[in-house]
Amino acid sequence: MTDQTLKLAPSILNTDFSLIKKTLEETEAGGAHMVHFDVMDGHFVPDITFGPAFVASLRPLTSLLFDVHLMVENPENHIPQFIEAGADMITCHAEVCPHLYRTIQTIKASGVKAGVVLNPATPLYVLDDILSELDMVLLMSVNPGFGGQQFIPSVLEKIARLREEIIKSGREIDIEVDGGITHDNVKEITNSGANIIVAGTAIYSHEDIKSTICHFKKRMGIVV
């Protein structure tokens, strides 16, 4: 079972890595709940970001939860390394997991929370036979691979339908949303049923990270 209170997961993909220790300190001081890692392999998505060694190097620097989003082909080949690196939760794309149930069970067997990611055009019915096994569903609200994209409005209805299905299931499953989320649209997203918000540019494009996180949390509906 998961805690479905509202949570903010800043994506460090949008940070200045030369200042990463200071960034993590300010992120934690601002009251963020976790750090989101967008792991890209240059195959499933065009860009390449970072691997488990980078995640492991940051683990001693913060007590925040590490939320690892694998935008990679053959994620089952990489899951053990990210678990060893300190991931607290791992999400994999349904689009690249032919044996999705086995992949989820591999993650959960290590005591790490497991989730499935759906691209904007991937229908919710792909979760029909796996939803009961999940701790989280991550709905992409942009096409994955690049930061700074515009939120796709039709995802709001998708969030609401997924929340209805979760309520019917009687389970407590987090809905995380990632892509194009700003101070202006975040409340509409949480009102639709999302409870974990990933934001990169909206957080780290500002010099005062701590204050920006506090303001963003207020916009989400979190009492600061």
UniProtKB/TrEMBL annotation:
Chain sites annotated for binding substrate: S11, H69, G145, F146, G147, G148, D178, G179, G180, G200, T201
Cross-referenced NCBIfam families: PRK05581.1-4, rpe
GO biological process: one example: pentose-phosphate shunt
Active-site residues, as the UniProt record annotates them: D38 (proton acceptor), D178 (proton donor)
Cofactor field: Co(2+); Fe(2+); Mn(2+); a divalent metal cation
GO molecular function terms noted in the UniProt entry: D-ribulose-phosphate 3-epimerase activity; metal ion binding
Residues that bind a divalent metal cation: H36, D38, H69, D178
Keyword terms of this UniProt record: Carbohydrate metabolism, Cobalt, Isomerase, Manganese, Metal-binding, Zinc
Reaction equations catalysed: D-ribulose 5-phosphate = D-xylulose 5-phosphate
Organism of derivation: Salipaludibacillus agaradhaerens (Bacillus agaradhaerens)
GO cellular component: cytoplasm
Annotated Pfam families: Ribul_P_3_epim
Designated name of the protein: Ribulose-phosphate 3-epimerase
